[in-house]
Amino acid sequence: MKKPEKLIVDGKRLDGRTPDELRPLKIEAGILERADGSASVELGANKVLAAVYGPREMHPRHLQQPDTAVLRCRYNMAPFSVDERKRPGPDRRSVEISKVTREALEPVLFLELYPRSAIDVFIEVLQADAGTRTAGITAAAVALADAGVPMRDMISSVAVGKIDDTRVLDLTKDEDNWGTTDMPIAMMPRKKLITLLQMDGHFAKEEFGQALDLAFKGCEQIYGAQRQALRDKYAIKKGE
Amino acid sequence: MLHIQNRELVVPGQLIAEGGYRVHEGAFREGEQVYASVVGLADLRGQDIQIIPLQGRYIPKRGDVVIGVVVDSHYSGWILDMDSPYTGNLFVSDLLQRKVDLVREDINQYLSMGDVVVAKVKDVDERMRVQLEAGEPGMGRVEGGKLVKVSPTKVPRVIGRKGSMLNTLQDVGECRLRVGQNGRIMIWGRDPRMINAVVEALLMIEREAHTSGLTDRVHLMLEKIKSEGGE
Q1: Cα separation, A238 vs A92, whole angstroms
Q2: Tens digits of residue pLDDT in B196-218
Q3: Closest residue to B210, CB basis, from A36, A190, A238
């Protein structure tokens, strides 16, 4: 795709959204039979799976922590998730995202309840259209709750950015490519505590505040969808 | 002040109550507020708040009866898998309830790899190292029977209020059951057809654990299979 003249025309973005609108969101909990907990998130063209195993015995043994469980995360993109085939396996980018994902999720988990054990989170990106790390964190939080791991709060995650000098919520691939700024954020929606904040590009001081407000608004919607996904898993069974 | 109804489905981080309630498993306190920490059904009894989880692994607790499988042996005992993040340690003396002279006696005659053992959790320390004992009547190595696995969170439903579900399964199913808190269940019976019927019933309980009137439905199902007779 060639760089468009303008990314926002008459207050509407390339895909017809307003600047403060999320892409269509669909979250489902408990979709994988073999995992202890699982979830899928579809955010626009993004398709992400998350699977949680554990708490389970930690191997290798020397990585065990005597007083707490260890959270391990793997963010992985499928070779077919992007336009140009991605070479499979971990690369610099996915290793970094795995690390920040772990750090985004860790603060809400009661890891101290399960000493010497491990909790494994696997995030698989099946289709990518910018914002996969935030979609992955959103999915992982639902999968952790679905696995029955005790949590202080959920984690909801969304990206904000700047295109054509306007703050926008939830950037698409094209907006990310041609825009000025991309800032993924993860937070605990109940306490409004931020657990992940990265930024690629620039924001003026007041712009940053406005962007943050926008992200909080987006996370609020995502949080609602996450809670609904967890409820729906059991509501269907209730009607049987 | 309570913010939810009894038996309501809650999700992690959901506000349950404010004030001086006693908080049990599945919930936590933050100042005056009590929040849920797991997906589960709220169990509110007066001043006590508990969330019955719908999902999760078995975490050993002192006094629980579990069904373990021998996965390793050491100088003075065995390591048992309890289908949990933690393994259990069973000493020979805790199996035989007597002093054992390890130099004179070969302990491999009592248990071997793969044996199924009914045991009780004697102690769990802060590092979750589990001590088991199997001295009480009906405990120790299991002979014959069928081993079934259900989710450990569904075990209270398999037992039922004051053991009502368990009694139904045993009386109508003409089987003897031993339920481990870790979700493993041993079934002994004469008629293989009724054993299979009880297994079906257990799977049904696991699927429909959070619905009401389940004991009656299990009763009906078992009676139906029983009356059909063997062909």
Answers
A1: 45
A2: 999 999 999 988 887 778 888 99
A3: A238
Angle between helix B164-173 and helix B214-228 axes, rounded to 10 deg? 0
Domain count, chain B: 3
What's B35's domain CATH number?
Answer: 2.40.50.100
Domain encompassing residue B218: 146-228
- Say yes or no for a CB contact (<8 Å) between B85 and A237: no
Q: pLDDT digit string (tens) for B178-187? A: 999 999 999 9
Task: Provide the shortest C-alpha distance from residue A36 to chain B (in Å).
Answer: 7
Q: Select from A115, A153, A231 the Cβ nearest to the Cβ of B12.
A: A153
Report ipTM for this prediction.
Answer: 0.90
What are the structural domains, with CATH classification, of chain A? Answer: 16-238 (3.30.230.70)
Q: Beta B48-53 vs B22-23: how paired, if at all? A: parallel
Whether residues B59 and A237 touch (CB distance < 8 A) is answered with no
Q: Do B128 and A116 touch (CB under 8 A)?
A: yes
Q: Is A170 left (phi over 0), alpha (psi -120 to 50) or beta?
A: left
In which region does residue A16 sit, left (phi positive, over 0), alpha (psi from -120 to 50) or beta (all else)? left
Q: Are residues B74 and B104 in the same domain?
A: yes
Domain boundary among B141, B164, B192: B141
Instruction: Report the alpha-carbon distance of residue A135 to residue A47 in Å, rounded.
Output: 8
Residue A149 at interface with chain B, using a CB cutoff of 8 Å: yes
The domain boundary residue, chosen from B114, B141, B168:
B141
**pLDDT (tens digit per residue) in A39-75:** 999 999 999 999 999 899 999 999 999 999 999 999 9
Contacts of B12 in chain A (CB under 8 A): 108, 145, 150-154
Q: Are residues B164 and B216 in the same domain?
A: yes
Are B216 and B156 within one domain? yes
